[in-house]
Amino acid sequence: MASVTEPQKMLPYLHAMGIRHLKYKTEPAHYPAVQENLLAVLAEHLSVEGGWTDEMHKNWEEALQIVSDVMIQAAEHPDKFEVELAQAGYYPNGERIGSSVHWELAAV
């Protein structure tokens, strides 16, 4: 499974996801609202258990910004990622080749 410790797997997945979001009419201006809501949900649930800290908030905020930037870059320039996506098992539109589940990660 892809993770931040394996960017060669995670980046094609995020690029594909950014390109897929074009069909949902997602605009760059939508990403900050999603980030804000995800942070709020994490804080709400983890604060109940006492596990949410200012450091965690900062780290998640930075991580979500990176994810957004990567997805936006792909959505704005999908043609730049066609070869990478094909090698990772995605169609140019970001859908997973051979799967009815478009968000599935490539098994490596």
Describe this structure as you would to a colleague.
With 108 residues, the protein is an all-alpha fold. Helices cover 57% and strands 0% of the residues. It has helices at residues 7-20, 31-48, 54-76, 82-88. Helix 1 crosses helix 3 and helix 2 (31-48) packs antiparallel against helix 3. The protein is elongated and about 45 Å long.
What is the alpha-carbon Rg in Å? 15 Å
The largest β sheet comes out as:
none
Low-pLDDT runs of 5+ residues are none
Instruction: Give the strand tally.
Output: 0
Mean pLDDT: 89
Q: Roughly what fraction of the amino acids lie in strands? A: under 5%
- Structural class assignment: mainly alpha
Helical coverage, percent range: 55-70%
Succession of helices and strands = HHHH
The coarse silhouette is elongated
Give the terminus-to-terminus CA distance: 8 Å
Number of helices: 4
Chart the SSEs and their pairings.
Elements: H1 7-20, H2 31-48, H3 54-76, H4 82-88
Helix pairs in contact: 1-3, 2-3
Keywords:
single chain, 108 residues, mainly alpha, 4 helices, elongated
Structure described in brief:
It is built from 4 helices and no strands.
